[in-house]
Write a structure and sequence with these properties.
two-stranded antiparallel sheet, alpha/beta, single chain, 9-stranded mixed sheet, 367 residues, 2 domains, Rossmann fold, 11 strands
Length: 367
């Protein structure tokens, strides 16, 4: 397995950079091309070496060529004070979508001459919202969408505290009680020794302390919304290794936008892109319907798999993600990539006029 990285300047400030990471297990001209868009405060770096806990790595091990994006936020030093973050006031959803397009163009140029002439976008959480926005603007470059517990965002739809400029140009991943430094110290302790004494006395170990932090996260509704270690859907050490790679700041302006305009909604509906989407249930009773509703808006065939009892991160890196998320994604990609190769070779995969068109499917699964 090889990981290769690139960075590119996309503006004048020191923060205006984006990055790409390519994971591949060898040259395969017929392999599906996938761009992974991480969620809020996340980046494209590889946090884990176990393919059963990280979708990009799993797909690369199984023959796909996977690229992952570093947003501009990855290049903002964590010790930057709020007055030094004024540059982020212009980091709108549209700006990030333009960065995604630059990344897609780079990937397609690097893949010139291959059978695949379009790529798949996989988006987790806010990355799913970016995937839909990008699909609306550039459907001709895409073969399909892989949606991991996300949907088309509306103003305030993610909940949680909002800090508006100019009081702060960016939201901080640290909170009032679990500050950025305390968060970092807890994650480092879990990685170093999950059985070490917990920083908070009422918990026995560092791992138990982290389990309770993610389970009770108010921004994700509590009761396992962020992750559900109580249901054995997540593992503290895996979560720590993923969470410690998060970037500190995110542009506050994006939390006050409604980026999917009526015009873009019409374009998305005309794209007819196929979608496979996965939804957790613990954040909100309405969350699965939001995920399913967004998947239907491309106007193409869509499969929605609802995972009962799962938290948000359980879908991305949980203990059962390989069997219940990664394997279905791989099977879906194999089928659609074969159709894409057929189109590239000049064969039409479209049904005849009298043939039934594939319709949406929904599947709800429990523990």
């Amino acid at each position: 397995m090889t990981e290769t990285g690139w960075t590119a300047a996309v503006g004048k400030s020191a923060f205006d950079r984006i990055g790409l990471h390519r994971l591949t297990s060898g040259f395969n001209p017929g392999a599906p091309l996938i761009l992974f868009l991480p969620g809020t405060n996340m980046n494209g770096e590889l946090p884990l070496t176990d393919p059963d806990h990280w979708l990009p790595l799993y797909l690369a091990v199984h023959g796909c060529e996977v690229w992952a994006l570093d947003y501009r936020t990855h290049f903002v030093p964590p010790d930057t004070p709020q007055p030094g973050l004024a540059e982020l006031r212009g980091w709108t959803d549209a700006r990030f979508v333009s960065d995604i397009d630059a990344a897609v163009n780079f990937i397609l140029t690097a893949a010139a001459g291959r059978a695949q002439r379009r790529l798949y976008i996989a988006g987790f959480s806010r990355g799913a919202a970016f995937a839909y926005l990008y699909a609306a603007e550039h459907p001709q470059k895409l073969a399909g969408l892989i949606i991991l517990d996300g949907f088309i965002l509306r103003r305030g739809s993610l909940g949680g505290p909002k800090i508006s400029p100019p009081a702060a140009w960016a939201t901080d991943i640290g909170g009032k009680s679990l500050t950025y430094d305390k968060r970092k110290a807890l994650l480092e302790l879990v990685i170093r020794d999950p059985k070490a004494p917990a920083p908070i006395a009422r918990y026995r170990t560092a791992a138990e302390n982290l389990d309770q932090v993610v389970y009770e996260s108010k921004a994700f509704g509590g009761r396992g919304g962020l992750a559900n270690p109580a249901g054995h859907f997540s593992d503290a050490l895996t979560l720590a290794r993923v969470l410690i790679t998060y970037d500190r700041y995110w542009p506050a302006v994006q939390d006050d936008e409604d980026p999917m305009t009526p015009e873009l909604s019409r374009k998305l509906a005309a794209s007819k892109l196929p979608v496979i989407a996965f939804a957790s249930t613990n954040i909100s009773p309405r969350w699965p319907s939001w995920v399913a509703g967004a998947a239907a808006q491309t106007g193409g065939p869509h499969t929605v798999i609802i995972l009962a009892g799962w938290g948000h991160l359980d879908i991305l890196c949980g203990t059962r993600a390989a069997a219940r998320v990664y394997a279905p994604v791989r099977a879906w990609l194999t089928r659609h990539a074969a159709e894409e190769r057929g189109r590239a070779a000049g064969f039409s995969a479209a049904p005849s006029a009298g043939a039934p068109r594939p319709g949406p499917t929904s599947q709800s699964t429990g523990r």
